[in-house]
Amino acid sequence: MKWYELSERATLEVTKTDKENGLTAKEVALRQKQEGFNELAEGEKQSALLVFLEQFKDFMVLVLLAATLISGLLGEYIDAIAIIAIVVINGFLGFFQERRAEKSLNALKELSAPQVLALRDGKWSKTLSRELVVGDIVKFGSGDRIGADIRLIDAKSLEIEESALTGESVPVPKYTRVLEGNEIPLGDQENMAFMGTLVTRGSGVGVVVGTGMKTAMGQIADLLQNAEAVITPLQRKLEQLGKILIIVALLLTVLVVGIGVLQGHDLYTMFLAGVSLAVAAIPEGLPAIVTVALSLGVQRMIKQKSIVRKLPAVETLGCASVICSDKTGTLTQNKMTVTHLWSGGKTWNLSGTGYDPSGTFSAEGKEVNVSREKPLQQLLLFGLLCNQTTVTKKDKDYVVDGDPTEAALVVAAMKANFTRQNVKGDFKVIEEFPFDSTRKMMSVVIEGKDNKRYVVTKGAPDILLTNSKSIVWENRHQQLSPSGREEVQNAIHSLASQALRTIAVAYRPLESYETITTEQAAEKELVFLGLQGMIDPPRPEVKQAVKECRDAGIKTVMITGDHVITAEAIAKQLGILPKGGRVLEGHTLNTMSQSELEDVVDDVYVYARVSPEHKLKIVKALQAKDHVVAMTGDGVNDAPAIKAADIGIAMGITGTDVAKEASALVLLDDNFATIKSAIKEGRNIYENIRKFIRYLLASNVGEILVMLFAMILALPLPLVPIQILWVNLVTDGLPAMALGLDQPEDDVMKRRPRHPKEGVFARGLGWKVVSRGFLIGIATLAAFIIVYDNNPDNLQYAQTIAFATLVMAQLIHVFDCRSEKSIFDRNPFENLYLVGAVISSILLMLVVIYYPPLQPIFHTMAIAPREWLIILGLASVPTFLLAGSLLTRKKS
Ligand code: ATP
């Protein structure tokens, strides 16, 4: 179908839809059934069986299985079956961990699924892009990604970047007129918008004519499937570490086996013990546990209203040293109410709260009748006409569809009884040039019922003033003299210093039937009409969050398009701008070179009247000063800075698709305080990963050393292979996972940010692993020797004691791993998962020791109660010996 050849009417007819009401819900459901969902076919997924089998491809596990097979053939059936059972259970565990990680990643994808504005049953509402059908009427604006193939029926300054389809990165202007000609290439179909392309400017409405694989994108979809799994820097580091540990563990194992054989143990026993030891000591589960810890952390972050789009960001979050935050909506509530108006030297106050359109106008304390105040009337009326936002009553609330700044103007006008409905007969809008944050203005061309036309512009007052030639003063146009300009500037200053956001309104009468086609032609030689000042209260939780960030060594910087005085006033209220802190304006930034900015960047806390383009310069300057930068943004033009930042943050509510796609983190509530929570969580996740690395490696060191020392001392094997495997599965597995769910330490937001290059073993972790591991090995061996010396004929009993000591030493040590300082710093019952994991490990150990049918399998015997004193005493040594010494060191 050549949709570009069809007129609007023909398109609506062919797709059987209605321009005013869209499709009905019933029709949509029917079409979804017939056409399927609007999605591109996905690549093959790995089957569950394959994922399961992958768990056994590890080299040492294969060796273990082979060794088991041999022992089975040699008649050791019980050992063989038990070992295989443990390996299979281990496989299942790995499988479920991997599945869980995958599931949460998919859930993330769904959460960030694109939405579109569609007209259905006569109402505009947000719909998931995948639910679009042919015939849907959709609306989109700058920053949106087009959700399906669309024939345009309305386009206002619309430009779309189609490089995803055509490779051409310069945006193409779009119109609605019918095109003629055969086989017009995609890039020239200027009345069409295609799935996956990006709106860079303006806005549009269109009819969906193709969905899913039947879109232009669908035809090349095969080329787009690049579902490569991302791994984080930490995961990469751990993979490298894992390789080193494998070699170390293998060497030590060979040493154990070699010495054992030299000391007269038989080769076969030593071989099986050695392989079991290697399987236990190689932390093959580490990457999977790290992934689970990361993804569980990510899920906790969702509950706190932030979505991680790029997993590595979780780690980088903990290193953030500067947060550059937008003001409007992030630090403030973005609920605007006009409270002050100014025109021709006169000021009015306006009462009322929020978007409720009840309130009265007053001047110098006395109520005024708006119909007698000509300039005030015009200021309100033009604020309403040069405006794309609607405010409607829903139940008891007022709902804004559009931009809060514009909503405030609509509500102010309503308070004087101007509504679009009321003024429809008097004026119509014939051209619109939408707002963008680089121009900081918006304009319309309107025509009165007397056929007179005007340009009406509203925007940042300082900029409008520059573009104005005259001013309305005492109901007359006057040339703007230097003193007149000064007067206006004083008025702007006075409103801004009360932390008010200010919007100016200006206009220019046109010749009748004069048409204006560009914003440059519209926004010049204006007549300055007046100002509207609105409050935008700070979010109540932000002040505290800024303080917490400061305590955590993180600087908060405000970046705003707003007026410098307004920005400064709000920054002071929020505690962002300290004494002596600098405020820099966009025009100063323009004149500074990159290195000049670097010289001062550490002193600047507020950037005002900046354009999105400045943000990139700021990020780069901060990064040059070795900062790890988090940067927020919402618009198309913010995307480069979001991408360049170490942690790009997009707004979930007001953010455009482009900003979200460039970001690593999306704030569901657009709230600054959420960034703080995410950073806290990021720090916690990293600390938790350190905690279980510490636990697992210290346990492994202990397991290897007990065997090595026993061989050196010419003792029998203190642990049999199945016991080693059991410890690896139960004692190492569950508590390590529970450490991944641990609560943050109290001072996690009191420390300085972590250096991004810091290694995993930094801050004494390596020493802790080696020293605790060494002591666990020694304690286990001591228990073995004491009991074995007493009763050399009963090796199995001594082995059971060694087994119990090893398990208990690890289970006590796990509580020490929760703190960077000392075990006494934390309440052990805080982490109930850990308490549960430890209790179940203890119970499973008791079952293996005391349940007669299991005793032959695990080579255990019932332990006499008094022996538990030895076990518990020795098992406490590794943790408490050093905890005590650390404690005294801290006190001194
Ligand atoms: P932030 O960057 O913190 O979100 P901001 O919202 O003030 O700050 P912009 O949206 O770029 O940044 O707005 C810059 C200026 O443009 C505002 O101070 C205001 O004067 C003007 N402005 C904002 N919205 C509109 C609009 N819809 N129409 C006309 N002018 C606007």
TrEMBL record:
Regions that span the bilayer: 56-74, 80-96, 244-262, 268-296, 692-714, 720-741, 769-788, 794-812, 832-852, 868-887
GO molecular function, one term: ATP binding
E.C. number: 7.2.2.10
This protein's UniProt keywords: ATP-binding, Calcium, Calcium transport, Cell membrane, Ion transport, Magnesium, Membrane, Metal-binding, Nucleotide-binding, Phosphoprotein, Translocase, Transmembrane, Transmembrane helix, Transport
Gene Ontology, cellular component aspect: plasma membrane
Keyword Chaperone: no
CDD domains on file: P-type_ATPase_Ca_prok
Domain Cation-transporting P-type ATPase N-terminal, first and last residues per copy: 2-76
Cellular location(s): Cell membrane
Top-level taxon in the UniProt lineage: Bacteria
InterPro entries: ATPase_P-typ_cation-transptr_C, ATPase_P-typ_cation-transptr_N, ATPase_P-typ_cyto_dom_N, ATPase_P-typ_P_site, ATPase_P-typ_TM_dom_sf, ATPase_P-typ_transduc_dom_A_sf, ATPase_P-type_domA, Cation_transp_ATPase_P-type
Topology class, membrane: Multi-pass membrane protein
Chief localisation class: membrane
Catalysis performed (reactions): Ca(2+)(in) + ATP + H2O = Ca(2+)(out) + ADP + phosphate + H(+)
Gene Ontology terms describing biological process: export from cell
Key word Membrane present: yes
Family membership: Belongs to the cation transport ATPase (P-type) (TC 3.A.3) family. Type IIA subfamily.
Family annotation (PANTHER family): CATION TRANSPORTING ATPASE, SODIUM/POTASSIUM-TRANSPORTING ATPASE SUBUNIT ALPHA
Name this polypeptide is given: P-type Ca(2+) transporter
Origin species: Priestia veravalensis
Highest classification ranks of the organism: Bacteria, Bacillati, Bacillota, Bacilli, Bacillales
